[in-house]
């Protein structure tokens, strides 16, 4: 059923529609940071944060301002 939150955190009772969302959330309680940067060994709770961090090492600036064209 659409929108049914079948996955509930045992620590804080927050509910999620997807199991992977619950697992990612549980890292808050465990302190686990399973995503590690291969360049500097800094660890992150979530893959998206790791990807954003890796831009420090690559110099990638994937976004640009529509007004001035400056990348960030």
From TrEMBL:
Location relative to the cell: Nucleus
A molecular-function term among this protein's GO annotations: zinc ion binding
Residue span(s) of domain C2H2-type: 7-34, 35-62
Superkingdom, taxonomy of origin: Eukaryota
PROSITE patterns, A to Z: ZINC_FINGER_C2H2_1 (PS00028), ZINC_FINGER_C2H2_2 (PS50157)
Protein name stated in the entry: OZF protein
Entry GO CC: nucleus
Pfam families on file: zf-C2H2 (PF00096)
Key word Nucleotide-binding present: no
Presence of keyword Signal: no
UniProt keyword annotations, A-Z: Metal-binding, Nucleus, Repeat, Zinc, Zinc-finger
């Amino acid at each position: 059923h659409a929108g049914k939150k079948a996955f509930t955190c045992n620590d804080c009772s927050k509910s999620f529609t997807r199991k992977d969302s619950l697992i990612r959330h549980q890292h808050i309680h465990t302190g686990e940071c399973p995503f590690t940067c291969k360049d500097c060994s800094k660890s992150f709770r979530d893959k998206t944060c790791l990807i954003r961090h890796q831009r420090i090492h690559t110099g990638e600036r994937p976004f640009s301002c529509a007004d001035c064209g400056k990348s960030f």
